[in-house]
């Protein structure tokens, strides 16, 4: 999955996961991964900055990994100071950020590297990246076209290639993402025109 990093103060940080829901009664949480190397990122003692609403008791705090396991195919973390299900539930939907290290993953880019890149579809430039927005489920590229701003999910199925050196991203969007889909009336008109052409 493609991801971006952000700058927090003077630190570059990488978004590496999101806490999905409490798991069991001993404070464990299921984890959605935004990293290809969970065994290296989620080691005991690793510390993460929390992105939570300002009203949360966890706002402005960080958490430390006590244990990371794969249980029934799901990634599960145990956190220092989170000993029961009630405490775990207070962290649901929190996004985990960590200081970037020198080893940048193959599909990770800094947000500022993406802003200004040309957006290319079928060898045609169709817009330019304005910015990146981080949402709980995924990152979005905000692309400026001639007529609008388009929100493009920053996932490999839609943005298969990021070429920083060439100054472009290549997109393979689903129909309708960058243009209005034909209305039913338009489709009927086109079908009628085709019938008339066939009968001539």
Form type: elongated
DSSP, total strands:
14
CATH level-1 class of the largest domain: Mainly Beta
Class inferred from helices and paired strands: mainly beta
Strand order of the largest sheet: 2-3-6-5-4-7
The largest pleated sheet is described as: 6 strands, antiparallel, barrel
Q: Over the alpha carbons, how many angstroms does the gyration radius reach?
A: 22 Å
DSSP summary: helix tally: 4
CATH fold name of the largest domain, please? Elongation Factor Tu (Ef-tu), domain 3
CATH superfamily of the largest domain: RimM
Helix-strand string: EEEHEEEHEEHEEEEEEH
Helix content: 10-25%
How large is the share of residues in beta strands? 35-45%
Q: What number is the mean pLDDT?
A: 80
CATH architectural group of the largest domain: Beta Barrel
Low-pLDDT regions: 5-10, 181-188
Termini separation comes to 52 Å
Q: What is the total number of structural domains?
A: 2
Question: Can you give me a brief rundown of this structure?
Answer:
The chain is mostly beta strands and 200 residues long. It is built from four helices and 14 strands.
Structure description:
The chain has 200 residues and is mainly beta. The chain has two domains: 3-105, Elongation Factor Tu (Ef-tu), domain 3, CATH 2.40.30.60; 115-170, SH3 type barrels (Roll). The chain is built from four helices and 14 strands. The chain has a six-stranded antiparallel barrel with strand order 2-3-6-5-4-7.
């Amino acid at each position: 999955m493609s991801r971006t990093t952000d700058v927090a103060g003077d630190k570059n940080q990488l978004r590496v996961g999101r806490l999905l829901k409490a798991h069991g009664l001993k404070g464990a949480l299921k984890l959605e991964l935004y990293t290809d190397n969970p065994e290296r990122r989620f080691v005991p003692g690793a510390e993460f900055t929390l992105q939570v609403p300002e009203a949360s008791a966890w706002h402005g705090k960080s958490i430390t990994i006590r244990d990371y396991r794969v249980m029934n195919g799901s990634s599960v973390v145990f956190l220092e100071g989170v000993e029961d299900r009630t405490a775990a539930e207070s962290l649901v939907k929190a996004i985990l950020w960590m200081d970037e290290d020198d080893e940048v993953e193959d599909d990770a880019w800094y947000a500022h590297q993406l802003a200004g890149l040309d957006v290319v579809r079928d060898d045609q430039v169709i817009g330019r990246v304005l910015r990146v927005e981080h949402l709980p489920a995924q990152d979005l590229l905000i692309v400026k076209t001639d007529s609008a701003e388009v929100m493009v999910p920053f996932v490999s199925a839609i943005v298969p290639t990021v070429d920083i050196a060439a100054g472009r991203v290549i997109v393979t969007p689903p129909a309708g993402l960058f243009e209005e889909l034909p209305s039913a009336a338009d489709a009927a008109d086109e079908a009628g025109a085709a019938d008339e052409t066939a009968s001539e």
